[in-house]
Amino acid sequence: MEVDEAICLWILYRRLKKRRGQRRYWVHPILRDRTTLIFNYFRMSIATFDYLENIIENDLRMSENAVRYCISPKERFIVTLSLGYSYRLNDRTVSQIVNDVSDAIWKHMQPIFMPVPTQESWKTIAAQFEEKWHFPNCCGSLDGKHVTIIKPGKTN
């Protein structure tokens, strides 16, 4: 081996050795962006996910037995949100999980976010509509929906 070849090999060796010791990223982009990725996948923040999961956790807990592994409440909630996309679960299993989780969500969230309206709440809503939109006797609206209203017969 000639001196020029030996020097080239030595320089190449030093460069390769130096690269192995250097990090390409301080934090890998996949790990750095995981909160954004989680939000995009579930369409909610981690805090919202944890809040909802904690509320419905007890209704989704299955009794453990020694014969087989039970799917945890968190996994059941994730499966419902992702519909088994990346969990490779049987259609019937996903269907049952979705039903259980949906029932639990409705049971705990309906009283908070969709309480049964009272006569007083209807009057308050109608007053707010009239004040803001100058539309009297309106008790609510559907966002982004166009509903054709036909005047009842024999009315002016």
From TrEMBL:
Superkingdom in the source lineage: Eukaryota
Name of the protein described by the UniProt record: DDE Tnp4 domain-containing protein
